[in-house]
Amino acid sequence: MRKAIVVAVVVVVGVAAWLLLRGAFAEATEREGEPLGEKVIKTDAEWRRQLSAEEYRVTRKRGTERAFTGRYWDSKEDGTYQCTCCGQPLFDSAAKFDSGTGWPSYWEPVREGAVTLKADRDLFGVRTEVRCSRCDAHLGHVFDDGPKPTGKRYCMNSAALRLVPREGK
Q1: Residue 92's CATH number
Q2: Which of 4-13, 46-55, 103-112, 122-131 shows the lowest mean pLDDT across its residues?
Q3: Sign of the torsion formed by the C-alpha atoms of 10, 16, 20 and 25
Q4: Which residues contact 162 (CB under 8 A, 6 or more apart)?
Q5: Which has more pLDDT, 7 or 52?
Q6: Does a structural domain hold residue 117?
Q7: Which of 15, 70, 81, 115 has the least CB density, counted as fewest CB within 10 Å?
Q8: Which residues are catalytic?
Q9: Which domain range does residue 100 map to?
Q10: Is residue 151 domain-resident?
């Protein structure tokens, strides 16, 4: 019995050390975006009044919606996806692809400065968080397993986006 406890403790400590080291040495891309116009800064109370409970949880508290539940994960509509908080254009439907993940995915933003990239260090390692460069809304994460030409998968939350149909369509 005592040997089993010692083995369990060693395994738990080893896994914890591995996770910590993985996070300490893993790299995440960081880049400050360049917003269109002035930065949007509001109080927490102002954001709560403006956004639905789900939009607030995702964009202001860095939440994640459940896979295959967001309104845009399988959308084929033509247009521009804007930030649900400030309206800044973020992604074009022409860059949208089916990643099979259950979240809307894009291989590039409408312009590089539209998004800010931040290291997201959590218990499971390091990822690259994607935020709106204008209002700092949490949008999702970007991964290096996307299609050509960029090889990127911007995996976004539908609650952080608003689709504006392309004019003339």
Answers
A1: 2.170.150.20
A2: 4-13
A3: positive
A4: 81, 82, 83, 84, 87
A5: 52
A6: yes
A7: 15
A8: 155
A9: 28-165
A10: yes
3 state DSSP class of 50 = helix
Return left, alpha or beta for 37; rule: phi > 0 is left, psi -120 to 50 is alpha, else beta.
Answer: left
Buried/exposed 93-126: b ≥16 CB within 10 Å, e otherwise: bebbeebeeebbbbbbbbeebbbbbbeeeeeeee
Residue 145: inside a domain: yes
Is residue 133 within 8 Å of 33, Cβ to Cβ? yes
Residue ranges of alpha helices (H) inside the chain are 2-25, 44-50, 53-61
- Whether the Cβ atoms of residue 153 and residue 142 lie closer than 8 Å to each other: yes
pTM of the entire predicted model:
0.81
Sheet holding 115-122, edge to edge: 96-97, 105-106, 153-156, 138-143, 125-132, 115-122
User: How many distinct structural domains can be found in the chain?
Assistant: 1
Ranges 23-27, 37-41, 88-92, most confident: 88-92
Q: CB neighbours of 13 closer than 8 A, spacing ≥ 6?
A: none
Instruction: In whole angstroms, give the CA distance from residue 96 to residue 134.
Output: 22
Residue 21 reports pLDDT greater than 90: no
Say what percent of the chain tops pLDDT 70. Answer: 81
Query: Cβ(19)–Cβ(13) under 8 Å?
Result: no
